[in-house]
Amino acid sequence: MAEEVTKSKRFGVNQLIPFAMTAIAVVFIWLGISVYGFWSATKGPLPGFFPVVVAVCMLFAGIFAYISSFKEKEPVWPRANWLVVLSVALIMGATFLIGLLPSIAVYVLVWLKGYEKCSWKTTLITFAFIMFIVIGCFVLWLGVPFPKGIIFERFFN
Amino acid sequence: MENFSLLLHGFAVLFTLQNIGATIIGAVLGLIIGAMPGIGSLAGVALLLPLTYKFNPTTAIIMLGALYYANMYGGAFSAILLNIPGDSPAVMTTIDGYPMATIRKRPGQALLTSNISSFIGGLIGMIILTFTGPALANVGLKFGPAEMTALLLVAMTSIGWLVGENPTKGLLLTMFGILLACMGMDTLSGSPRYDFGNIYLLGGISFTPFVIGLVGFAQVIKLMEERNVQTKAVTDKLTIRGSMITRHDFKRLLPPAFRSGLLGTFVGVLPGAGATTAAFVGYAAQKSFKSEEPLGSGAIEGIAACESANNGAAAGAFAPLLALGIPGSGTGAVLLGGLMMWGLNPGPLLFTNSPDFAWGLIASLFLANLITLAIAWSVIPFLIKILSVPTKLLIPCITVVCVVGSYSTSNSMYGVLVMFLSGILGYVMQKCRYASPPVLLAFVLAPLLESNMRKAFIISRGSLSLFIEKPISFFLIIVLFAILLFPLARSLLLKAGIVKQKENNP
Amino acid sequence: MRKVVSMISLALMLASAVPLLAEGKADKASTGFAPSKDIEWVVSSSPGGGSDIYTRMISDIMTREKLAGGQTFLVTNKTDGGGEVSRLMVSRVAAGKAADHTLLTFNSGDLMPMVKNTANRLENFTPLAMMAVDKQLLFIGEKAKYKTFADVIAAVKAGGNVVMAGSKGDDVATYEMLIKELGFTENQIAYITNDATSGAITSILGGHVDLVISKPAAADQYVAAGKLIPVLALSKTRFTGSLASAPRLSEVGAYKDVEYPVWRGVVGPKAMSPAAVKYWSDALKAVSETNNWKNDYIGKFKLLSEYMNNEAAAAFMANFQASYLKSIGK
């Protein structure tokens, strides 16, 4: 994919962050004033005071950033990077079925062998190392209770 | 001087084989825990507390102290090598630590600088603690809501430097960090804020998964771009010798380390302010002093300033903990619980009722500091080896640690979700050239500022007079105005020709 | 494609071995109810805190006294949503083995935010026992402006402002009860909520507030050191030992005694079977009678041992919930 070097004129990713921040600021201001209260004569600042003041600053900064964001280059988004995101999303989903540790195990094996196309030796050594850290440190030593997933719950109960 | 002889007596208690062994074990465990992203000192101490049940009280307490201390060392490891802070105080260490390791290609030196600075900071803190313990704690007590508000405002003015080259973006992110921190239960009113009806958001956004995601997971996503680049061979630096710092480097790190050690100890004593605040203050202070290389580009001064401060704070936090029984942070609370479980009751009567225990503990912290330095130093070559692992293997490894670490913070997938979302956010931020430290620091400091400010107003019934009435607060407000008006005053004086225009490159 | 499938199935096979590491053994129950698998005990706050110590103490004693049928307790701290997520989760545990083997530590300080901020109510749980109660006192610092509580009342009536610091949860409710009884407004005696009592004590030791409300355990050593002086007992009877000098509210003036029930209990999911409920209720009773419990927990933390079985506890907690709901206008 050819890199976009021309300055973007439409709503692109560069505008995304300032826009989102401005929107968030508006929401916080509105909730802060209407629901949480701004100032009380006796207690001073109420729960809404601080967030509203901050959100107002953010609103102005956001608008300013939005305007100046059109001067910036569009960043490049390599496809490969999103694979990591997808992997973690899949891990989270798979956790419900088979639990966190098995999902991670599957991920490591599939990633190393299937995606990176490492040799079996590299794959298994890295796999063993990772599982050693996870199981040795988190499960055995620290005793963190990892989710077991629906399928295993049914199996073992 | 009486304290000094008591301290020597404490050393006598300490020097049994079992106790020294306990110090070593505590130090090693603390280093590991500290280095693991996701397990901060709170979780680490809490999870390891049961381990100490097997030993007798003195040994157990000594192990606990060593653990807590070594934690501060360990946080820098993953910060420097992987740009993933091991715990929140290490966030500041990433700023100079990671560039020094990767861009300047001096990972060993970076790690060693961090270790030595940690040692100096901790040592300064412990010395101050020994000789002024209760007095120091009492100074901390004088900082009530009004004083803390004023102090934090002064500290916030130095956040200006954090915004980097683009002030608008920096400001935007700082505000964003503050708003994120406002989500959740508002203690002062007892009601939730900005929870949008979601039961998970009642507890707000958990900080540790947020940090792991924003900085760590985002980093992994970005690493994908570099996986096919051949790892530059760092093999020649893989010995202890290869990671030695030059005499010049050492001279460079001393002043920041001393300054930050003092600052950090003081910050550690203050109620509510912990190692993260200390690291920030130390780093910000360094900005006003000369650094050979610009801060943020991998300068030794940068690493020294924050690492020394956070270890100083760990020591400083012991002052109110031991002398008054007041834990300054969540970690302190767990430590307090552990100490109480062993019959050691921190508080005003501690030094009178159980001097053996108390001074044994303090002596053990000195020893722990030394031992941790030695261990940390010796594992540097091993740690650097991590850098030579091919990136493509590192990626799944770090991803797994991020996921598992985030889960462990609250034993639920919510942590993983927070990490996931903040990782995506961090990645997008990086691509659009937004830096992440302002968000994290605002997230940590803002709640402290807000709660103190509101408490001050409750005490004064909504009037500003409290800030002027209390001497410390009054003094700090003057300092605040001085800082705020200084640039304006300076430009006015320049225009009036009273002050010469200096050739300066800040 | 086949390669990928075979890889994934190999991975799944390897991965299925993993959870076996953390699984307990299953036993067949004989007659009545006896625990037949690991018992999950949920604590809705972080490790090291009061509820955590309480839970581990009870589970340790039960294991030692063989009250758990040889099964292990898995104490899990789940702090999401300020603890609400774990409470909701426990209330919804399905009937059967799961419900019979799930316990939740539940205190007055848990119930209050739960009913205030969520739709969850006591009816979604099965109370098993009440184990301990606690009470509070008001203290002044060394260099306090007001030397007795009578002075405080007089000062407020003369138009002065008094500030009280305390923790969140129970202390707030006690404060509200107190000012109501005194007939003062929140503005006359202002309240500063801290995350934990230690924060409140810090502020009074530094002289930033006038009064601090605290349970005996947290204030004990400061009283012994002379840094805190008890001025009011928020209880229907006077305290003993170093706290005996504090008068009750009725002794200070023409008021009724103010006492807010602060309690610690254990509950199970709504769907827990009656046999299991009886079992746990009896087991907890046995725990409350051990010397271990009396000395190492109650005595150490200066609580008051008060065991109530499941029925009494249910009635008590329901009453508590009803009056709390009324007080916050729900």
Structural features, described:
The complex is a heterotrimer of chains A (157), B (506) and C (330). Chain A has 157 residues and is an all-alpha fold. In chain A, 69% of the residues lie in helices and 3% in strands. Chain A folds into two domains: 13-71; 79-155, no CATH class. Chain A is built from six helices and two strands, in the order H-E-E-H-H-H-H-H. In chain A, strands 1-2 form a two-stranded antiparallel ribbon. In chain A, strand 1 (39-40) and strand 2 form a beta hairpin. Residues 1-6 of chain A have low confidence and may be disordered. Chain B is 71% helix and 1% strand. Chain B is built from 22 helices and two strands. In chain B, strands 1-2 form a two-stranded antiparallel sheet. In chain B, strand 1 and strand 2 form a beta hairpin. Helix content of chain C is 42%, strand content 21%. In chain C, helix 5 packs across helix 13. The longest helix of chain C is centred in the C-terminal third of the chain and has 18 residues, at 310-327. Chain C is α/β, with parallel strands linked by helices and 330 residues long. Chain C has helices at 2-16, 50-64, 84-91, 97-100, 108-117, 149-157, 170-182, 197-205, 216-224, 249-252, 274-289, 291-299, 310-327; strands at 39-43, 73-77, 102-107, 125-134, 136-141, 162-167, 189-194, 211-214, 228-234, 262-269, 304-308. Chain C is elongated, with a radius of gyration of 23 Å. A six-stranded mixed sheet of chain C has the order 2-1-3-10-4-11. In chain C, strands 7-6-8-5-9 form a five-stranded mixed sheet, sandwiched between helices. Chains A and B meet through helix 1, strand 1, strand 2, helix 2 and helix 3 of A and helix 8, helix 9, helix 18, helix 19 and helix 20 of B.
